[in-house]
Amino acid sequence: MLCYLMLLRIVILTASDDEWKSASATYTKETDGSITMEGACGYGKLQKNSYGQYSAGLSSLLFNRGRTCGGCFEVRCVDHILWCLEGSPSITITVTDFCAPNYGLPDDYGGWCNFPREHFEMSEAAFAEIADRKADIVPVQYRRVNCDRIGGLRFTLGGSSYFYQVLITNVGLDGEVVAVKVKGSKTGWISMGRNWGQNWQCNVALLGQPLSFEVTSSSGRTVTSYNVAPPTWRFGQTFEGKQF
């Protein structure tokens, strides 16, 4: 009976994720660079970290204090004959940034990312796949989808002697990381805390030790990559582990 209830819960959650929900979308011109080059998730140059041009910043409600970083959404323009492209094609985007609220402007005129609005501030390339660039704002529908990645999880190491940080990118499945553990050859498994976006940290000296990582996604799946970084690793280097 317990197994049946657990399976039923999974089916219900999956069905909920598949449902289209209503939101709005605008775009940032690529000459600005804030969406395609940097972002509040800490990914840095998105092309280098495999997220490319199809990215977006989310309003507070959807961004969820950075927990949605790396997640993938399918988005389509709807209910606007003038601005939506014919047939309402959809595009899959990766969450890489935060769209900050502007409470000095009305929610329906400039304050599009004000809480509790659901809004996507898309890259220009992504927006152009679903709507005319001449539009200021368009109504959209969205739903969560799995992220299709090539290769394994990537771990970029940072910090100092007694402050260790890792940026996790190229995350498949649901794209979101909710828990990380690191292990050196002289330590047990150490839980890391979220610093910001998908940067995780712990106050442990790990230099000179091979490093293993245990990463858990928002779906509850965990993947363990043993001895990803050799004992000779240095800050700033990136290593590839297993994929979900």
From TrEMBL:
<comment type="function">
    <text>Causes loosening and extension of plant cell walls by disrupting non-covalent bonding between cellulose microfibrils and matrix glucans. No enzymatic activity has been found.</text>
</comment>
<dbReference type="InterPro" id="IPR007117">
    <property type="entry name" value="Expansin_CBD"/>
</dbReference>
<dbReference type="InterPro" id="IPR009009">
    <property type="entry name" value="RlpA-like_DPBB"/>
</dbReference>
<dbReference type="InterPro" id="IPR007118">
    <property type="entry name" value="Expan_Lol_pI"/>
</dbReference>
<feature type="domain" description="Expansin-like EG45">
    <location>
        <begin position="38"/>
        <end position="152"/>
    </location>
</feature>
<dbReference type="Pfam" id="PF03330">
    <property type="entry name" value="DPBB_1"/>
</dbReference>
<keyword id="KW-0961">Cell wall biogenesis/degradation</keyword>
<feature type="signal peptide">
    <location>
        <begin position="1"/>
        <end position="16"/>
    </location>
</feature>
<feature type="domain" description="Expansin-like CBD">
    <location>
        <begin position="162"/>
        <end position="241"/>
    </location>
</feature>
<keyword id="KW-0134">Cell wall</keyword>
<dbReference type="InterPro" id="IPR036908">
    <property type="entry name" value="RlpA-like_sf"/>
</dbReference>
<dbReference type="InterPro" id="IPR036749">
    <property type="entry name" value="Expansin_CBD_sf"/>
</dbReference>
<comment type="similarity">
    <text>Belongs to the expansin family. Expansin A subfamily.</text>
</comment>
<keyword id="KW-0732">Signal</keyword>
<dbReference type="GO" id="GO:0009664">
    <property type="term" value="P:plant-type cell wall organization"/>
</dbReference>
<keyword id="KW-0964">Secreted</keyword>
<dbReference type="GO" id="GO:0016020">
    <property type="term" value="C:membrane"/>
</dbReference>
<dbReference type="InterPro" id="IPR002963">
    <property type="entry name" value="Expansin"/>
</dbReference>
<dbReference type="InterPro" id="IPR007112">
    <property type="entry name" value="Expansin/allergen_DPBB_dom"/>
</dbReference>
<dbReference type="GO" id="GO:0005576">
    <property type="term" value="C:extracellular region"/>
</dbReference>
<protein>
    <recommendedName>
        <fullName>Expansin</fullName>
    </recommendedName>
</protein>
<dbReference type="Pfam" id="PF01357">
    <property type="entry name" value="Expansin_C"/>
</dbReference>
<keyword id="KW-0472">Membrane</keyword>
